[in-house]
Every structure is written in C-alpha cells, then in structure tokens.
C-alpha cells in the first residue's frame, strides 16, 4: 500500500481526479463525508486528506509515502523530501502587493505582512532591503489597508482578492504550482511503485 497525502480543498479534488485518471481511483474519496482516509486495495493506494500546508510534514516524517504540495509550502518550510514532478496544476504566483500608489521609502524599515516569512525574508535579503515581518495566518490583504504593514507577500491566483481590497501586485517573487513529492526512505524501499505513479501522473493530463 502506498500512503498518499492529498491537500484538502479545491486543488485536492482536482489532484484526486488526476490520480484517478492515472489509474489510482478510489471513488469514496469524493463522497460527502467527514472521513479523512480511504483505501483501494486493488490499486494499492491509501489516501489521506490533510491541510494543504501539512502535506509536506506527513511526507517528510514518513506518515505518507508521497503527497501533493504547493511549491509555496516547499519554499517556505524546506522539508527534506524529494520533489519528483511539477503537476502544472494550482498555478499561481508569490507576489509583493500593496496599494497601487505605493512608493518604497528606503530611509525606513519596510513592514511586510505575510503567511510566508521565510520566502519574504529571502526575497528582501536578495534585494538588500531591511524589513520587519508581521506574521499573519490569513486575510493578509487587510494589513496594508489598516496601516499594519506597508506591503504584503502573498499568493496571487486571479488577482481578484487584491483588486477588491484596493491593492495591486507590485513584484512577482516566484511562480507556484503543485508538486508531487516523496519521502526519501519510501523512495528507496518503494522506488518502482513511486516511479510508476509519477510517470502515470505525468501522462494523465
Ligand atoms: C489565498 C491568498 C489570497 C487569495 C488569492 O488565500 O492568500 O488571499 O487566495 O487568490 P486570488 O488572486 O484568486 O484572489 P486563501 O484562500 O488561501 O485564504 P487566506 O490566506 O485568507 O486564509
């Protein structure tokens, strides 16, 4: 049995459909229920629904052999896992955003609100800009509106959330998409199964 961590939510459902097309169906996964684990002994897979930001932890610790995680999470937490495939799904970008008329006053420390402090720090370190991080857990777009921060570092997909809150993307830091990842030990012990899954996922567009 291969244990597969799926990210709960819209992306996870699309990812599951790709898994099903790749030859690993388990129809109960999509049933309305509170269950979090499902298995299909015929194809040798056991699925778990986990919070998207936790997929990499399950895989790194070996609770899941493989999983699908956003590149944002991999960049932020640098888990020790193998990144095997870019699924080309869940595409978005990590951006600096702020009021459209924002001008950086380099004489003072820039206040950056974000859920991704490591990505933000690395970006501004590369620019040589001094910042202070305000770590938030969601609804980041409010921070510049209320004067809590000068800018935000956050994910932009359609740009609708920024627009509806009077903000604009200022700089793209990195493009993001969903990645197929594997636990390093599982990749040694189940290399045939994991490589086959990876190839089939690649071909199941
Ligand atoms: C993400 C991100 C933005 C929004 C961007 O939020 O933090 O708020 O999606 O999408 P858009 O460009 O298509 O509008 P998420 O839904 O994960 O919620 P949260 O960060 O507020 O928890």
List its salient traits.
alpha/beta; five-stranded mixed β-sheet; 31% helix; binds 1-O-pyrophosphono-5-O-phosphono-alpha-D-ribofuranose
Overall description:
This protein has 205 residues and is an alpha/beta fold. The strands form 2 sheets. Strands 2-3-1-4-11-5 form a 6-stranded mixed beta sheet. It has a 5-stranded mixed beta sheet with strand order 8-7-9-6-10. Helices cover 31% and strands 32% of the residues. The model has no long low-confidence stretch (mean pLDDT 96). The chain contains 8 helices and 11 strands. It has helices spanning 10-21, 55-60, 71-77, 117-127, 142-145, 160-164, 184-189, 191-203, and strands at residues 2-7, 37-40, 45-50, 66-70, 82-86, 92-99, 110-114, 131-135, 151-156, 167-176, 178-182. Strand 2 (37-40) and strand 3 (45-50) form a beta hairpin. The chain binds 1-O-pyrophosphono-5-O-phosphono-alpha-D-ribofuranose.
Low-pLDDT windows of residues: none
Helical proportion, percent range:
25-40%
Report the radius of gyration as a whole number of Å.
19 Å
Bound molecules: 1-O-pyrophosphono-5-O-phosphono-alpha-D-ribofuranose
Helix/strand/pairing category: alpha/beta
**Mean of residue pLDDT values:** 96
Strand content: 25-35%
Question: How many separate helices?
Answer: 8
Q: H/E element string? A: EHEEHEHEEEHEHEHEEHH
Terminal Cα span: 24 Å
Estimate the global geometry from the Cα principal axes: elongated
> Would you count the extended β strands for me?
11
> How is the biggest beta sheet arranged?
6 strands, mixed
Q: Strands across the major sheet, in which order?
A: 2-3-1-4-11-5
